[in-house]
Amino acid sequence: MNLALWIAAGLLAAVALTGGISKAFVPKEKLAAADGGGWTADVGEGFVKSLGVLELLAAAGLILPAVLGIAPVLVPVTAVCWVLLMIGAMVTHGRRGEFKFVALNLIYLALAVFIAWGRFGPEPFTG
């Protein structure tokens, strides 16, 4: 179970890192032209950049606290925050009729739920 939770956290951290880098550093106009990025045309650049920074923090929060042994409870807390972020993403993509992205966000949400459940429940980092 511990290995499965680490794999899930690593996958989700990679997703968060990729999304965070693109939102934080790619121009909004380029994001808006990409598949699934049309929503960025409807919001301010500061909002997009803020989401990018949050995703970068999520990438760090899913891995670093456990690896460093500093406040490892932040791993499942980060996973819960990711669930909330994915609910927002699913609503946004659903309103735009982008149901393949709703499904993708649902997969990310499920991974985060698994991590939160596992680390708060049967496989916490502290015994």
UniProtKB/TrEMBL annotation:
It is found in: Membrane. It is a multi-pass membrane protein. Keywords: Membrane, Transmembrane, Transmembrane helix. InterPro entries: DoxX (IPR032808). Pfam families: DoxX_2 (PF13564). The chain crosses the membrane at residues 56-89, 101-120. GO terms for cellular component: membrane. The keyword Transmembrane applies. This is DoxX family protein.
